[in-house]
Amino acid sequence: MTASELVARIAARELSALEATDECLARIASLDGELGAFLHVFADSAREQARAVDAGQRTGPLAGLPVAVKDNMCTRGQPTTCGSRILESFVPPYEATAVARLQAAGAVVLGKTNLDEFAMGSSTENSAYQVTRNPWDVSRVPGGSSGGSAAAVAAGMAPLALGSDTGGSIRQPAAFCGVTGLKPTYGRISRYGLVAFASSLDQIGPMACSARDCALALEVLAGPDPQDTTSSVEPVAAYTSLLESGVGGLKLGVPRSFLGDLAAPMARVFEEACQVLVGLGARLVTVELPNLGAALPAYYIVAPAEASSNLARYDGTRYGFRAPDAGDVLTMFKRSRSRGFGAEVKRRIMVGTYVLSAGYYDAYYLKAQKVRTVLSRDFEKAFQEVDLIVMPTTPSTAFKIGEKSSDPLEMYLSDIYTVALNLVGLPGLVVPSAPVEGLPTGLQLIGRAFDEGRLLAAGHAFQQATDFHLRRPERTSVSQG
Amino acid sequence: MRELTGPEVDHVAHLARLEITLAERESFGRQLGEILTYVEQLSTVDTEGVEPLLAVFARHDVLREDVSRPALGPDLVLRNAPEQEAGQFRIPRILEES
Q1: Could you give the angle at the alpha carbon of A29 between the alpha carbons of A28 and A32, nearest 5°?
Q2: CA dihedral for A103, A107, A108, A114, sign (positive or negative)
Q3: Of residues A164, A169, A190, A210, which has the active-site annotation?
Q4: Residue A405 bears catalytic tag
Q5: Quick check: pTM over 0.90?
Q6: Are A297 and B52 an interchain contact pair (Cβ–Cβ within 8 Å)?
Q7: Does the annotation mark A169 as catalytic?
Q8: Which site among B45, B83, B85, B98 would you substitute to test the A interface, given the most A Cβ atoms closer than 10 Å to its Cβ?
């Protein structure tokens, strides 16, 4: 059942909030041993929240809706590990704004989902705790870093989940798991309480079964927050009311020159998806984004640079892991960090430290920041001619567990179609498109800043004409109904 | 393909406050070399006269009224501290860095 249907049925008292929560908890109990999507399940507090909805004490647009939260968002009094040993025993004293807004809207927090450590990765293999498996094929990755949230939605363990997207971490796992994922415009949702990875790129967003569900969630999540000065004061649209606007008469741009290397089966489903939109009245044109190829290298300078600075706070002093055997403070810093962080996090801290170090700053970091301006102008120019840009989400379907884990650069390349949006702050919506060899793919729709209404309407129109978003992996739909 | 030398890796690790093993020294040297070689293709983008993008959709001068607001008290702030004493974070003795 989609989140929208569930909310409507609970509101109509056809289903109690407790029944909805128990159903999710039962699916987690039966499926998650194999899938590994959840790091923490809050069964008791979830049931308590659900009972409060049934008793009429908690109300709101998401009343009774069970949700899963990526474990890099702070939950007050409940663990937030970020997939890292260094935060293994951390219990936040405050709530992330996004989580608080879900709670205030009546949602029920089921638990926290697995991720690549500190959201650094594209496969959810880099978690210090467990590997998450793709519900469509458990020998494959769910994508990352929001792989736990994507797998939870795909397997029907949660109708809605929060993810975060720094270079594609909502969109790529959404594509790999056949769910709908929205990376909103930078600043659309407060980042307060989101464990910082790369602050100029990070954005929280919803992952669910449909564009409608993402619209429902965004209405609750979006808006300014005095705790995050980068949160936007742009008015929040009534996204669910805009859903039926359709794509008739819209001009969709395809950056053809950037898609030349796309493997034939992926190119075919992308073209088919574009034709669906054409069938709905949109017009397809080729659009030039001449510097799109520079996005990935720029990203792998900017993101590690910001990470190296943000992760300096983990030094064993105020919270998190402290190495017990250090005689002096410098050794304590170094030893706590070295034992607390995993290999990929250390690698990115090293890269970031290097590109920011004396003598290299101009050549790497400053250059990359200039490239962001160039990219921004390219998108601005493109959006003078088109209403939306459409692209594939990933160069392939979900890869095998272990396939890319020994080659960092190879792993980075799976973000080739997603990172540009983070560098320029624009919103992107991924909707499931036709499968390739039984595995999901995703169509990526890109909009102007704060134009989520149009994006979601386009995604909704696509989903009215297709049923890819309704398909569920066999192994999870057969069983435990 | 470039590779960072052992002393270069050691220097960066020290700046990043990381202790690295001999095996990491070797693998990071190689991997950082590969990553840096990859990102150096940026040099082909013409950025002559282009300003760096310092903030996406920046709101400048975000101010609030200068009045006190409730904040986390010391008890909550210290609750996750590895070691504390007399309402403060406790750390090992600070020695001169060599």
Answers
A1: 55
A2: negative
A3: A169
A4: no
A5: yes
A6: no
A7: yes
A8: B45
Please tell me which residue in A122, A123, A127, A145 is annotated as part of the active site: A145
3-state secondary structure of B7: helix
Nearest to A424 among B13, B28, B56 (CB): B56
Place of tokens 């994006």: A455
B91 and A319 within 8 Å at the Cβ level: the answer is no
Query: Which string of DSSP letters, residue by residue, matches A152-164?
Result: HHHTTS-SEEEEE
**Residue whose pair of structure tokens reads 């706590």 in the numeric block:** A336
Please, what is the average pLDDT of chain A? 96
A308 is catalytic: no
Amino acid identity at A306: E
From chain A, the residues in CB contact with B31 under 8 A are 347, 408-409
- Domains of chain B from N-terminus onward: 6-42 (1.10.20)
Domains of chain A by residue range: 3-290+374-479
CATH class of A3-290+374-479: alpha beta
Q: Which whole number is the average pLDDT over A446-453?
A: 98
Record: contact A328-B42, CB cut-off 8 A: no
Q: Which two tokens stand for residue A239?
A: 């996204």
A197: nearest Cα among A292, A290, A116, A316: A116
pLDDT digits (tens, 9 = 90+) for B35-65: 999 999 999 999 999 999 988 886 677 888 8
CA distances from B94 to A328, A333, A338, B89, B97 (A): 6, 11, 19, 14, 9
A5-57 residue pLDDT tens? 999 999 999 999 999 999 999 999 999 999 999 999 999 999 999 999 999 99
Residue contact A320–B19, C-beta within 8 A: no
A369–B53 C-beta distance less than 8 A:
yes
What is the predicted ipTM? 0.94
Which residue's structure tokens are 């650069």?
Answer: A409
Q: Which of A414, A420, A412 is nearest to A375 (CA)?
A: A420
